[in-house]
Write a structure and sequence with these properties.
Shape: globular
Number of domains: 1
CATH superfamily: Bacterial phosphonate metabolism protein PhnH
Strand order of the largest sheet: 1-8-7-4-3-2
CATH class: Alpha Beta
Low-confidence stretches: none
Distance between the termini: 58 Å
Number of strands: 9
Mean pLDDT: 94
Structural class: alpha/beta
Number of helices: 6
């Protein structure tokens, strides 16, 4: 390669297409985790799992925001050419710190009754050792399903519900763990603590 070194091994065509199918499958089947680790392993630096999602969903026609993490924001902008926007204007909002959850969810575009698709998707780094079990119901879940996750994920859903969106308004959430597990929770999914 004439002495040039590749910045990453993530293929922006084939890997992004495979990742997109994983994310689509996870969205259609909430609580059924997808594994993004094989794709994230092709990226270096911090938050490779989040970067793999960014490289799949972002391009120069959609905008993004990373809450209080300038390094990750700069890396996403360089890899995707997606423009950075304030959280209230962004199409995708990446959250790496629990302290930013309320601000991110509260600012996120929720669409309108006429144009619900003009809403944001939150991509949340789902980390932490405290485990809890949630009972989820809604489209894509036959009956109900138990999701074993972190207290951070539970808190994210609490904050989402506190917005009291009027259907079809709302936000979709994608949780991505350190281990590369991706779980999508679309806006119509309801939850409660599993007994």
């Amino acid at each position: 390669m004439n002495g040039m070194q590749k910045a990453h091994d993530f293929d922006v065509v084939f890997d992004a297409q495979a990742m997109f199918r994983l994310i689509l499958g996870a969205t259609a089947n909430p609580t059924r985790p997808a594994c993004v680790k094989p794709f994230a392993d092709k990226l270096s630096g911090q938050f490779p799992n989040l970067l793999s999602v960014a490289m799949t969903l972002l391009d120069n026609e959609v905008s993004f925001c990373v809450c209080e993490n300038d390094g990750l924001a700069e890396r996403i902008a360089a890899l995707t050419l997606s423009p950075m926007r304030p959280p209230e204007d962004a199409d995708f909002i990446f959250v790496t710190e629990q302290t930013m959850l309320e601000n991110a969810v509260g600012c996120a575009k929720c669409g309108t009754l006429r144009d619900p698709h003009r809403s944001a998707t939150l991509v949340v780094w789902n980390h932490g050792d405290e485990k809890c079990a949630l009972w989820l119901t809604g489209p894509g879940i036959p009956g109900a399903a138990t999701w074993h996750t972190t207290r951070l994920a539970r808190r994210t859903l609490e904050v989402r519900d506190a917005q009291r969106y009027e259907y079809p308004e709302g936000v979709d959430i994608v949780f991505v763990s350190d281990q590369g597990e991706l779980v999508a929770v679309p806006r119509l999914i309801s939850w409660k603590d599993a007994v």
